[in-house]
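Supplementary Note 3. Input sequence used for the single-chain structure prediction.
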Amino acid sequence: MEKSDKKSIVLKSIIWKIMERTGVQGVQFILQLILARLLTPSEYGIISLITVFIVLGNVFIQSGFNTALIQKKDVNEEDFSSVFYLSLFVAMLLYIILFFSAPLISEFYKMNEITMILRVLAIVLLFGAFNSIQNAIISRTMKFRMLFFSSVISMITSGIVGIILAYLGFGVWALVAQQIVNQISITIILWITLKWRPKLVFSFSRVRYLFSYGWKLLLSSLIDTLYMNLRSLIVGKIYTSEMLAFYNRGEQFPQIIVSNINGSIQSVMLPTLSAEQENKRRVKEMVRRSIVTSSYILFPIMVGLAVVAEPLVRIILTEKWIECVPFLQVFCLSYALWPIHTANLQAINALGRSDIFLRLEIVKKIIGVIILAISMFYGVYAIALGGLFSGIISTFINSYPNLKLLNYSYKEQIKDIIPSLLLSIVMGGIVYSILYLNMSPYITLFIQIFIGCIVYIGLSKIFKLECYEYLLKIIKSLVKKKL
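The predicted structure, written as discrete structure tokens, is reproduced below.
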């Protein structure tokens, strides 16, 4: 395949992946806004805490082997079927563990509702076993268009169910039903459209081969997921369920945006980088492009979101959620660093150096836990700030191996993102000054968003930012092809 053809496939895949994530998260965001008005912060706090255990369980099902199937150059039906049956067995085992440990978790957090809710919600783990193989096949074949339609339809369907139940007064069970229906829907739709079926074969040798690569990623993902959710577990234990809801709600806004844009790019980049793993120079070019492009798009959004946080929350979540504003602002700064994190880690993954990946995760998490242990004595806001500080340190750690692997130093990476960062800070200062006009939240928010876009794009054009010209060129070429 020619280079131009590969580039076209990658661009189309990124566009479909961004559409899939944006569509799903956009629908989910609207649904969450509606549910936030119907439910209380306390009810959200309970489901946020329970979801942590489900997320940890999903790591064993959807990490390690899933990534190994994507990264491995040659796979066959025996590989997919063997991993499928193994994932299903692990899912059943995890469900049994969560079922019998639910009362202990409920007693530890002094919340009687947890037992039954956890036992019901953990059913999604079984569907996750199906979904993990489906996602691996989609990633390998880059059929992200298929994932877009299945994900959006599933989210709309489950959202309608959740809203109806919340309106009828089912409280936290509306959120439980929404998550279960979503997982069932997406699995069924992909089962019909993907046409993949597991064969009645299981190969221990194939599993061992994939495990030799995947176990390091599995352990890395487990460490990372546990670490990322450790703060929620601590906040849920030390403080109230309402405070946990404010903490998690503050994280939700930047997380949705970053996972849409940066996550879409990186999910396409892994199979693309893996295909070019023998050409280090080409891998470096793609990693650099990923960092520069993601930063150019995400920096102004994160800075802008932090600045408009207060009027935004008052308008879309109402006054009962105003306590989430400080968390939202801190998380915006934390998630702005993700392009550097993920691009560097994806490069290491694609080069097959899961050993380095694992070592990085261990070092980062040791440092992060130390910072968390110190910050938890100074209050819940200090916990959030500690996460930001850990993230800054992690950018140095993640980029260090690529100095040798790709000759792409941290100094080069900083140089690549500085233009976007400076423009975002200038834009943020101008947008923040609008708050002093003391207008209504609606007018303030509208003017802030409008002025922010004009300033950032205008400065990009004036200073002729390379990434601005690059994206403009891509947009023009795509429009021309459509015409």
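The radius of gyration is 22 Å. Residues 292 and 417 are 6 Å apart (CA to CA).
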